TrEMBL record:
Entries under CDD domains matching the protein: Radical_SAM
Protein name from the UniProt record: Radical SAM protein
Domain Radical SAM core: 1-250
Organism: Novosphingobium fuchskuhlense
Recorded GO MF terms: 4 iron, 4 sulfur cluster binding; metal ion binding; oxidoreductase activity
SUPFAM superfamilies named in the record: Radical SAM enzymes
Cofactor(s) in the UniProt record: [4Fe-4S] cluster
Keyword 4Fe-4S annotated: yes
Pfam families, per database record: Radical_SAM
Length: 371
């Protein structure tokens, strides 16, 4: 049986921000409109029961990430009750985390996270002139100051340093990478996870002129320079993973390298889907048969449908299989390999970018090794 590493749980199907790059609400998939706005108590109960059985069946723990939409739209008291219920049902080795946009991150929520050992990750795209350009609220109002206040509130808690897992940033190519790095270090976060804009072979990511252009690779290369120049750097997961792979180590998260990661997504009605970034690939996040948290999850994970989905993480394009950098880039995210004509049988739209970044990393590692 394939081991599940991460379960993304959609506590809310709606969001209080209107981010211009969102793969859920801005890339053509409207399935969220058919979902309940919030996950019911009955669905949470079934989720906990069946995830507990799955952990026993696979013989290893997993991480549960409250996601959305915006998961804190359930409200502080309901969020606390959900955390308490899942902590009661799940083995203590299961990690609980919340990925939030930070607007509703009040003291009650933070106390709940501390009480139930829930890690907090917050989405923030940089200083206000960058963040507010892309992440206004539903009325078009700026959100940066509220998010920054939420980060400060977490860090002010007695357990804040251990609660804050890090920040999540979607790259804006118009921003200066060195300035972005300095900004994030000033927030007090222990780490930042930088994400490329979503896109595929039919709709290129914003900022990419062509499949052969390297705008994102060059941006990340300049970020790497700032990162390596810092004697006391914060962690940057993508750069750390890729450099570990170049040096013969392993990655710790999907998107690079060739390790497999078992991922399930639970919608607010309890429906199980594939990785939700696949919503941007013409609704490719749906299984052929409907599965739910009310079903036997071990049976789902052992089914041919799940096996096929899991294998889609590995690239099949001839260009990828013949590439010497495949061990490092891993072929990229499946959603970035998609096209209507060939499904996932393509290199990533970021292939040229990743090659550019890998070459730059090798140059920097060689310089530091020789010094």
């Amino acid at each position: 049986m394939i081991a599940i590493d991460t379960v993304l749980v959609k506590l809310a199907s709606r969001c209080n921000l209107d981010c211009d790059y969102c793969y859920v609400y801005r890339m053509g998939d409207d399935a969220w409109r058919l979902q309940p706005k919030l996950m019911s108590e009955r669905t949470v109960e079934a989720l906990g029961e069946n995830l507990a059985r799955l952990v026993v069946a696979q013989g290893r723990p997993l991480s549960l990430v409250f996601h959305g939409g915006e998961p804190l739209l359930v409200g502080a008291s309901r969020f606390d009750a959900i955390c308490a219920k899942l902590r009661e049902q799940l083995p203590p080795t299961v990690g609980l985390h919340v990925q939030t946009n930070g607007l509703l991150l009040n003291d009650d929520v933070i106390r709940s996270c501390a009480r139930h050992d829930v890690g907090i990750s917050i989405s923030l795209d940089g200083p206000s002139e960058i963040h507010d350009r892309h992440r206004p609220d539903r009325r078009g109002r700026k959100s940066h100051d509220t998010v920054m206040a939420g980060i400060a509130r977490v860090l002010a808690h007695t357990k804040g340093r251990s609660l804050l897992s890090g920040l999540l940033c979607v790259i804006d190519l118009e921003a200066d990478p060195a300035s972005i790095y300095d900004f994030f270090k000033s927030t007090g976060t222990p780490s930042v996870d930088f994400l490329y804009r979503d896109g595929n072979h039919d709709t290129l990511p914003i900022g990419k002129a062509s499949l052969l252009s390297t705008e994102y690779g060059e941006w990340m290369g300049r970020l790497l320079d700032a990162y390596l120049a810092d004697d006391e750097p914060i962690r940057i997961r993508l750069l750390d993973d890729m450099m570990r792979l170049i040096l013969g180590g392993r990655s710790i998260k999907e998107g690079v390298g060739q390790d497999d990661y078992g991922i399930l997504v639970v919608e607010t009605d309890g429906t199980i889907t594939k990785n939700d970034t696949l919503k941007s690939a013409d609704g490719a996040d749906q299984f052929a048969e409907r599965w739910s948290v009310h079903d036997d999850l071990a049976e789902l994970v052992g089914s041919p449908f799940f096996q096929e989905y899991h294998q889609s993480q590995r690239p099949k394009a001839a260009a990828c299989l013949a590439c010497p950098d495949l061990l490092i880039c891993g072929g990229g995210m499946p959603t970035h390999r998609w096209s209507a004509a060939a499904a996932f049988d393509n290199p990533s739209v970021f292939c040229a970018d990743q090659k550019r970044l890998i070459d730059h990393m090798r140059e920097q590692i060689a310089l530091r090794t020789a010094a």
